[in-house]
Design brief:
Elements (H helix, E strand, L loop, with lengths): L14 E4 L5 E4 L16 E9 L5 E9 L8 E9 L2 E8 L4 E10 L6 E12 L1
Antiparallel strand pairs: 1-2, 3-8, 4-7, 5-6, 5-8
Length: 126
């Protein structure tokens, strides 16, 4: 696997990380802060999984977006949830902000069987 800004510290501040409360979170980016990397519009990190959505009404994620002040003002991070590659929910965070997306969800009530569910964090121009 190629090491890049999103995968250089897996298990430490990126990827599946243990919290102080002995829980686990999945970090797209870096939980510890202070790391710098050259990123450009369109760069992204994503985690995806095939999920059986039979009998489910929605797929839901809870996210906290923390964007450093140093990010240029014309860029923002967009977090999205996708079903089979189609964006079904998203939220944006601008430089210098922290945003909790406590109810980012997608309607899957008309679907059955396994579908690819993904959460994507992408740097976009605003």
């Amino acid at each position: 696997m190629e090491l890049d800004a999103f995968r250089s510290r897996l298990g430490e501040g990126q990827g599946r990380v243990a919290t102080a409360e002995a829980e686990h979170v999945f970090v797209l980016g870096d939980a510890t802060g202070g790391s710098e990397a050259e990123l450009t519009e369109g760069d992204f990190a994503e985690v995806a999984q095939d999920v059986d959505v039979t009998d489910a009404d929605v797929v839901r994620v809870w996210l906290r977006l923390r964007v450093p002040e140093e990010v240029p003002a014309d860029l923002a991070w967009v977090a999205s949830i996708t079903v089979d590659g189609r964006v079904v929910g998203q939220g944006t965070a601008r430089p210098g902000s922290t945003r909790d997306l406590t109810d980012l969800l997608g309607n899957v009530s008309k679907l059955a069987g396994a579908h690819r569910i993904a959460v994507r964090l992408e740097l976009v121009r605003v």
